[in-house]
Amino acid sequence: MNNYKPPVGAQFIAPSSHTIRNMPDTVSQEGAINCAPTLPNRWWLISLLLSTLLVLFAACGSDNTTATTTQATATLALVNAFGSAANHVHAMLALPDHVLVLATHYGLFRSEDAGTTWKEVAAGPHQPMQGLMTYSLTASPLDPNRLYVLTQVAVNPHAGTLGLYTSADQGQTWQLAFPTPSSIYLAEAGNTTPNEVYIYLPNLGALGLQVSVDAGKHFSSTGKLPFGRILGLLAIPGTTGQLLAYGSDGLARSTDGGSHWQVLQGLNGGVYEVVTAGPHSPIYASGDAGIFASHDSGKTFTLVDSQESFASLTVSSTQPQIIYGKTGTTTYRSSDGGHTWKPLPHISGNLAVLVVDPNNASQVYLSLSYPTAVYQLKSNSTGWQSLTPQA
Prior knowledge:
Blueprint: E1 11-13, E2 26-27, E3 33-34, H1 44-54, H2 64-74, E4 78-80, E5 83-84, E6 89-95, E7 99-104, E8 107-111, E9 117-122, E10 132-139, E11 147-153, E12 163-167, E13 175-179, E14 186-189, E15 197-200, E16 209-212, E17 220-221, E18 232-235, E19 243-247, E20 250-254, E21 262-263, E22 271-276, E23 283-287, E24 290-294, E25 302-305, E26 312-315, E27 323-326, E28 331-334, E29 342-343, E30 350-356, E31 364-369, E32 373-377, E33 384-386
Parallel strand pairs: 1-9
Antiparallel strand pairs: 2-3, 4-5, 6-7, 7-8, 8-9, 10-11, 11-12, 12-13, 14-15, 15-16, 16-17, 18-19, 19-20, 20-21, 22-23, 23-24, 24-25, 26-27, 27-28, 28-29, 30-31, 31-32, 32-33
């Protein structure tokens, strides 16, 4: 856990009234979000999936017992304006005009000045999503003002309604789009219109991918996935209807909005992250076999580094050859499209989500968990500057 130090200049605008390898938060088939460290080797993903089928990790459950317990946890003493030491990060976005959106277990926070000040905009008292955790935060590649986020129970009792929420103003305000008690594993903004969004229901297996064309109000099934379960979905920007689905069984591509799929060859083992900088940019994938790159909108992938693999990747649209990767303890940068990597300055703590400003490939943000904290890479890359607001 990091030693928290209040930042210089960071403020909080109140609402009205060890060594682990990182993993993405996951929703199990039973409906619980798993917030646990992964195994320190490349087979962690397969082991995790098998374990998930047998037992629920206790950290982020949605059952009544766990949620009631977390209610007491949520009232612990504040260590910073993001909450108590129990708070942790599920997702983070860096948007145009220096906007940051942070989805945590206890609150959805937003900054519009590159992290200098923060405001809790949802999931707090008397706010939308009150008592709910937020995760799977996604922005439309066609309109950065259109955001989507999923919710699960954080505390009981809770005033908020479970389901998919959407924002049309870059996260300033949120509305319930699709109320449902069902377990939704992920949400991914589509590439046909800003009002298109995909969700994946793990209980339905290969038939679990659904799409909405009215900003999440109604959903219909797409075609059958080639895999029994997926870990992620990428709607390729600038290519209407083209999708990449990935997981422990590999990577598959669709050109018709998920109606039909083709499994891509040459990517041995699981794939657990796929990212791109924007339209007509390289697509990068990280998996058991290493780092892959595609320069033909995901039709084919080439192995560019067999020595590295990361639980998460991020890339800026201004310089798509610059990629950032993260393990549970270290962050890395590649300046040549993933062929070689250099570590960034060390930072202590439970590394959570790494994002880069869409308009500045050198402006990198890193969130930490237990407690929630946010840092920015210094301009000379010599260290990290805290953006965590004081309690």
